[in-house]
Structure formats: structure tokens, C-alpha cells
Amino acid sequence: MAEPENHTLRLLQEIRGAVGTLDGKVDRLQSKVERNHEELTQRIDTIRQAMLGESVLGRYATAEFEERLAALEQRISVLERRG
């Protein structure tokens, strides 16, 4: 039968190897998570920029509509004063 000290040493070596393998897997997983986080952040920024662009366009269109409506109201006021 093998000495208990040799057995313990062999088990510790196996554990060290398993921990090293696990450490490599964790590093790869962390790298993948960081890439995914960066990609999602870029997507959110793109969506946010598109939303803000549409908002500016919407305000521009609304302002143009408001100007046309004000011009019509002014013309109606003139017509009402005449008639």
C-alpha cells in the first residue's frame, strides 16, 4: 500500500491541475462576457442615437406644422375681421 504522504501529494497535484484548467475556462468565459457586454453597449448606444435622431426630426416636423397652422389661423383671423 502506498504511503499516505505520497497519496496526499498526488491528490494535491491533481487538484492543482484541475484548478489550473478551471482557471483557464473562467478566463475564457470572462473574456466572452466582456465582449458581449461591449457589443450590447454599442447596440444600446446605436439605438439611443437613432431614437434621439428621430426625436429631433419629429420636433422639426412639428415645428413646421405649427408654423403652417399659425399662418392659417392668421389668415382666418383676417377673413373674420373683414366679414
Sum this structure up briefly.
The chain is an all-alpha fold and 83 residues long. It has one helix spanning 4-82.
**Cα shape:** rod-shaped
Q: What proportion of the residues is helical, as a percent range?
A: over 70%
Order of helices and strands: H
Specify the number of helices. 1
Taking the sheet with the most strands, its summary is: none
Mean of residue pLDDT?
A: 88
**Over all CA atoms, what is the radius of gyration?**
35 Å
- Structural category is mainly alpha
Total number of strands: 0
β-strand amount: under 5%
Low-confidence stretches: none
How far is the N terminus from the C terminus? Answer: 120 Å
Characteristic terms for this protein:
single chain; 83 residues; mainly alpha
Walkthrough of the structure:
The longest helix has 79 residues, at 4-82. The protein starts with a helix and ends with a helix. It is mainly α and 83 residues long. The model has no long low-confidence stretch (mean pLDDT 88). It has one helix at 4-82. The chain has a domain at 59-83.
Write the topology of this structure:
Elements: H1 4-82
